[in-house]
Amino acid sequence: MIAKISHGGSLYGVLAYNQIKVDELHADVLFGNRIIEPPGDKPYTIEHISRSFGDYLTANRKTEKPILHISLNPDPKDCVTEEQFIKLAEQYMQRMGFGDQPYIVYRHNDIGREHLHIVSVRVDETGRAISDSYEHERSMKVCRELEQQFNLTPATKKEWKEGLPLSPVDYESGNLKGQLAGVIRPIAREWHFQSLGEYRAVLSLYGISVDEVKGEYGGREYHGLSYSATDKDGNKVGKPFKSSVFGKEASIAALEKRMLSSAAWVKSHKDIATDTAARIASAMQTAGRDRAHFERELMRQGIGVVFRTNDAGRIYGATFIDHADKTVFNGSRLGKEFSANVFNDLFAGQDSIHPPQQSAGVERPAQQQGHTGASQWNGHDTDYQPDHKDNTAQNVANAFSLFAPVQGSASGDQPAPQQRKKKKRRRYGRQQ
């Protein structure tokens, strides 16, 4: 597990960051410690949460950056239940000296991995600063202890040095070139993909597009790549960058070699494809015909999905991204029961919560976004009838029968833990 601790001066800014995730249904509030509860069943708001920190910040004597923002990131392979996440947050805050402070805990589930964000203050009720001496070293020690206590995958020294897992590019944050490089280089170097389309799909989850550039200049043909940042709707923003800016590993020649080596790697690690297919089948069985629920279930199991749609809304491509094993699969590569036709008929007429805005004549990948309520099929008996002559219905049934649901997956169906003194768990932003 990797922890990142940030100090800031704006309470509103850090609460707004997490509230946006809640509003987009990419996060929910797990619980609060010494946080004033909203009346009735009303959800938390930035203004309401701020009241719980008001007295501490008013009493602050001279701490320049009194706001504490912590993210706790288990390994993507770890399957952490809600109860474990709650205890994890409580134990971490207690051992770091913030157990008696007001704090609120958010669970984020974007980019195929669940992790926590904790917002608190670094000054006590009298306004005195809570010591941050050797904070990084103490945090590492606490994480090692919690890894053993909760049987989590230990983070390596390299992972601590390199920092947190990949994060989406945020155009508004600046340093666009650096942000792009921070995602493109490790994906091009470490991930397994067998086509440019699969490479493009995984980049799209991190807010990056890549285009082939072909032509002739000075009597010589050239073939290269151009990378751009995208907004949440999939539209390019800012200036594009040539692949050479990010080094040889981001070039078309290097990527073609990577595709060949990836094909050999996947062939020798057939269990990866089998496990990924099983998790997809489990999500299909749980979500039924509900596309947003299906995408949510996949995210909980560490898998991203990119559906490619045309202007008519028909799904003509499906690519699955296994974040834990850093492997990308075109749906049909996993089996005909995971082909685009199956999902088109399964989710006919449905969009994600925030579908990309499409320009005329332009086809964009519909990235996984949003959650909806669950609808389930009873067993394998459905009213589903394909509208064309194929064996899609049988393929869906095959997906359910060939692969049993993954044991111990973070499906979100865990029983809610007992309410604790001074704490109350609220679920806003995610429907169970």
TrEMBL record:
Residues 349-432 are annotated as: Disordered. It holds the Pfam family Relaxase. Residues 45-152 form the MobA/VirD2-like nuclease domain. Residues 355-379 have a biased composition (Polar residues). Residues 419-432 have a biased composition (Basic residues). Residues 380-391 have a biased composition (Basic and acidic residues). NCBIfam families: Bacteroid_MobB. This is Relaxase/mobilization nuclease domain-containing protein.
